[in-house]
Every structure is written in C-alpha cells, then in structure tokens.
Amino acid sequence: DGLDLLAFREKYGDDVRSLLPQVDELVEREYAAWADQRLRLSTIGLAYSDVIGPWLYSEQVRVQMEQFELR
C-alpha cells in the first residue's frame, strides 16, 4: 500500500525526502507518486521494485551488507 509518510516521520524523526532524496527521482521518472500521505510505486515502479529497494539503501547498510559473513 505504499510508504506512509506520517508513520515514517514518526519512526525516523524526519521527512522521507530529507533522509532518502532519491524518492524525488522516482516520482520524476514516474516510478512512484505521492497520494493520500503515501508514496506509492506505479505499475512500472512495481516492475522495477527489485532494483528500487536496494537503490534506497543507505551507505551504512551497504557497508554492513558487504561485511556480512554467513556463519
């Protein structure tokens, strides 16, 4: 059902656009849209969701993923 913008702000203490400026590019390219206080992927965005998700990872998460070793 998309990303609830109010819930995001409550959980992370900031606006999604401040923490993930890439979302504006998703909207510009019509992969997502703002509607009813939510960010929702479009049909084409859903088709690329496997790429979009990792594209939104923070640098800290990327580093942790690179350092991860399966035990």
Describe this structure as you would to a colleague.
- By secondary structure, this protein is an alpha+beta fold.
- The mean pLDDT is 95.
- The chain has one domain (3-67).
- The protein has 6 helices and 3 strands, in the order βαααββααα.
- Strand 2 (32-35) and strand 3 (38-41) form a beta hairpin.
- The protein has helices at residues 5-12, 16-19, 22-28, 43-47, 49-55, 59-67; strands spanning 3-4, 32-35, 38-41.
- 56% of the residues lie in helices and 14% in strands.
- It has a 3-stranded antiparallel sheet with strand order 1-3-2.
Structure, briefly:
This protein has 71 residues and is of the alpha+beta class. The protein has six helices and three strands. It has one domain.
SSE map:
Blueprint: E1 3-4, H1 5-12, H2 16-19, H3 22-28, E2 32-35, E3 38-41, H4 43-47, H5 49-55, H6 59-67
Features:
71 residues, 3 strands, alpha+beta, single chain, 6 helices, globular
On the 0-100 scale, what is the average pLDDT?
Answer: 95
Shape call:
globular
**SSE string, helices as H and strands as E:** EHHHEEHHH
Q: What percent of the residues sit in helical stretches (DSSP H or I)?
A: 55-70%
